[in-house]
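Honest question from a wet-lab person: if I give you the sequences of every part of a complex, can you actually get the arrangement of the whole thing, not just the pieces? Trying it with mine:
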Amino acid sequence: QLQLQESGPGLVKPSEPLSLTCTVSGGSVSSSDYYWGWVRQPPGKGLEWIASIYYMGVTFYKPSLRSRVTISVDTSKNQFSLKLSSVTAADTAVYYCARGAAPFSRNWLDPWGQGTLVTVSS
Amino acid sequence: QSVLTQPPSVSGAPGQRVTMSCTGSSSNIGAGYDVHWYQQLPGTAPKLLIYNNNNRPSGVPDRFSGSKSGTSASLAITGLQTEDEADYYCQSYDSSLSASLFGGGTRLTLL
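Yes, you can. This is the full assembly:
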């Protein structure tokens, strides 16, 4: 059974970068059948898709975040990662990683990790 | 404001049927891209409920169904149960943005 687990700091200072890693178990990030993505949810608000990556390195980014976001995959560790630069309080959210169906235009997400809360505060 | 528009809330009594909508545009749902639905129970991660407009993953009861027409999609829940009280999100792809989109979410409240 595929499982995903997010890891990273729970507290990040304003203007600093945020880095999160998603470790995949029970399956391979090298599968040609799936994308791997990040979604966030600010406290009390809705879901926001951030970025997705295919094992060959093809990436998709939310346009409004593109300048600050980098998604990458490490097939040797069966992990994929998210980096968000110059964070502000508006980036405070629960960050989820998830597996997405291919092609990207049919990118339903299943399963999801349990999520990790990242708070931006000094 | 989300590109996919969902009503903020719907409500129904146990045993009743409710529907909730997801309205998009000609660059997403109207362009033929599939709609997916997620259920998020309080304090938990979202769970895939419906994929590719009207398909249920294994384990999802057939009380849940999806449909799509034109620039909109709908999620229907029949025989409402207390455990259905949750937030529901639609998702689709937008070709003008080359991005995945979520609706703003609909909170289902049981009366």
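Two things worth pointing out. The mean pLDDT of chain B is 96. DSSP finds no helices and nine strands in chain B.
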